[in-house]
Amino acid sequence: MSIEAFNSKFQRLQIKGEETLVSATVPHHLLHPGLPNIPEFFASVEVSGLEVGYCDTTKKKVEPKTNWAKTFLDHHQEQLDWYTAECVERFPVNMKYWMYNVMEIYNQTGGVHVIQRLDHCELDSETGEISAFSKFGYDGEDLLELDLKTLHWTALTPKALAVKPRWDSDEHRTRWISLYITKKG
Fold this sequence. Notes:
This protein is an alpha+beta fold. It has a single domain, classed as MHC class I-like antigen recognition-like (Murine Class I Major Histocompatibility Complex, H2-DB, Chain A, domain 1). The protein has five helices and nine strands. The chain has helices spanning about 5-10, 65-75, 75-105, 165-170, 170-180; strands at about 10-15, 20-25, 40-45, 50-55, 60-65, 115-125, 130-140, 140-145, 150-155. The strands form three sheets. Strands 6-7-8-9 form a four-stranded antiparallel beta sheet. A three-stranded antiparallel beta sheet has the order 3-4-5. The longest helix is centred in the middle third of the chain and has 29 residues, at about 75-105. It is globular. The relative contact order is 0.07.
């Protein structure tokens, strides 16, 4: 096929700097293969909307993203060691266990699935009160949220009602998350 024939049959489409050829004469779809080299587990820490730290199971280390976070970790080796152990050893194991737990309840035996966890902690400087939550998502949908006062889970979708009893009965999980977020428990 000549270049002229090729160009008349296909249109060029540019998405995020990558050029894709799209046929103008036949039905088509766009398939994005995802991001290359995504680690099995990664965590990002934000303070007031600014990413201050990152770690993943590929690099096996904590990376401070701001000067003040780097300075803090440079002067607190024990804290850096703790964050590294959490990110490289404990979090990946726990998240994988929790994902397989949900897969079992949903009768899923394979495939690609994603479990997400969002923790939030806020200290009221006037009262000393801590407000916090831990929320889980599964395959892009809200799943459960931990009530840190009662240490019980709230189902965020009707489908999550099947998961709630098992997670409520796992006191180790709820206490560990509560302690992690609030440093009490």
